[in-house]
């Protein structure tokens, strides 16, 4: 390891790990909120932590923080232990299992709890299947439970779990209905009695159904009914009566729950084969997408392979062992790759992956004869937490590294909907649109041009991502199809990016500003990217012209953007005391454009080490808050390992500090690690930036 300078060494000490204090062992650290079932914007179940909560120390919640009833009990020789959720069950006695350890990887959250003489291993697996469109679009996650005796004796064990109807709405006063089917698979289905397609309440979807299912093996039983009734039934008897409550009622009216139980029989000192539960939420159509011929309904891709949700669920459960093995391979690959940076970095990346991919849904359209057109794949991303827009360009952009790392084709499918809409001529502005729709899951465009304008930001982002995809894959089809649009955005950047007008950047919460140095970087990189695109497409004259414009702009930009001290770039031209994270230089490095001179990289590397706060480097001089994604991107442009690691350690410290109980927030305060409001956003895919350089 290289020697740190005096100031860096003391900062490194300040940034050394502070873990949330918990009484169980944790690996790699205790995060703000633990992903349990995180696969889509509507299948997003977490265990909030703050300073730490056991699996049975808090209710699981939706990403917003509202409770998702999900309970678990295990009976051991007739004594009942609660292992999941915090249910109260009047009239019966049970104990709390004691959590011994918690581990997370990129795909799994694994808890070990002791229930008397039994250790229970509860594994929440949210598959990450970037190379399989059917599996990646499957809106289900697994919970598996296995037991092992710890005292040398055999014990009789039964396992129970239920979900409530809170999984189908953001309003618990609404009426739900439900049914249970009992073939090879026990499947509970619960729905809102009155549904509104493409609508949300408090960010929960208001149509489709939630499912809770398990294989109908010997000893499997089920029940639906009031929470206290059904849970007491299991606690007393260790078995459910296979009965259904058909008194359909409001979600919160005697809380109907949908329960499943397994008899593990006699359990010895060898861990049992796990019993597996599948939880998910299915809706169809999933997305409404604007075309010149009106709004098109799009379905999750898995529908092209399965006729019914029941078929999908049975296949999903049957695939558990293979899915777990694929997950372990993926987890190991991420660990190996990220450990090349540091172990701190590995934990940050592992915590980011399910969250980032879980904001996306892969969709397919139908042919006129009703069959699926599997050649027409579009990916949709919800801008979770900040405003719920669909396919926000400057949210896809920070997340972009996760697509480059896992499967760049998913990135292409994200861009394709944006390209197609703007190529249709329905969008009136000369710069790139901000998003495809104000409210997920509607991608109905902005034909009035009234979307949140980020002209330089989004135009640069589209050019950078389009070239990045082509460079990574050698697939130039989008560049060919959408050359005119790409050129149009470049023309705009040539006009407006050297002297950027008063406007917002992606960091819109910081307000508008004229002459933003970092925005100019984005625009210049965008122009140079189009020079490369023109070269790929064989237009050498255009390529040379744009290349010389970019080079000329860099020289002039240096005159505008340097602080008079010569020690750092400014936040905005002429304000020498100002500075900010120049994270847009990451794109220069990613695309290997070398449009900015090495001296700027060296200067920024030296500078950030002098302005670090206890929890990292502020976003800019307007505030002391920062963005974790942009910190890692900035880490990517540092010319020394020590400077890079200041950013990595800062994000690790924030993620492991116990100051938040919300799913990994990307916006936080550098002085004390206080969260700033964003949570569960896909932009944490940007934490993979160091894996794609
Ligand atoms: C529940 O309500 C939905 C929507 O009204 C309806 O389509 C479905 O058939 C109902 N299911 C049951 C089991 O009553
Ligand atoms: C899209 O789906 C909705 C809800 O099922 C339906 O009402 C509408 O007619 C469909 N639109 C088209 C164009 O198929
Ligand atoms: C932006 O910077 C240019 C170049 O320094 C300067 O001419 C212009 O006045 C600045 N605009 C604003 C609004 O500060
Ligand atoms: C270079 O591109 C700019 C901006 O599109 C254009 O105004 C100029 O005429 C071009 N120059 C040449 C030599 O093609």
Fill in the keyword field for this structure.
693 residues, Beta-galactosidase, Chain A, domain 5, Glycosyltransferase, 2 domains, nine-stranded mixed sheet, six-stranded mixed sheet, 32% helix, globular, disordered N terminus, binds 2-acetamido-2-deoxy-beta-D-glucopyranose, signal, GtaA_central, 6-hairpin_glycosidase_sf
What's the Cα radius of gyration? 26 Å
What low-confidence regions span 5 or more consecutive residues with pLDDT below 50?
Answer: 1-18
Our count of domains comes out at 2
CATH class bucket of the largest domain: Mainly Alpha
Distance between the termini: 21 Å
Q: Based on helices, strands and strand pairing, what is the structural class?
A: alpha+beta
Bound molecules: 2-acetamido-2-deoxy-beta-D-glucopyranose
Please, could you describe this protein's structure?
Pfam families: DUF5127, GtaA_6_Hairpin. The protein has two domains: 9-324, Beta-galactosidase, Chain A, domain 5 (Distorted Sandwich), CATH 2.70.98; 340-691, Glycosyltransferase. Helix content is 32%, strand content 24%. It contains 17 helices and 27 strands. A hairpin with a 3-residue loop joins β8 and β9 (108-115). It has 693 residues and is of the alpha+beta class. It binds 2-acetamido-2-deoxy-beta-D-glucopyranose (4 copies). Residues 177, 179, 191, 193-195 line the site of one 2-acetamido-2-deoxy-beta-D-glucopyranose.
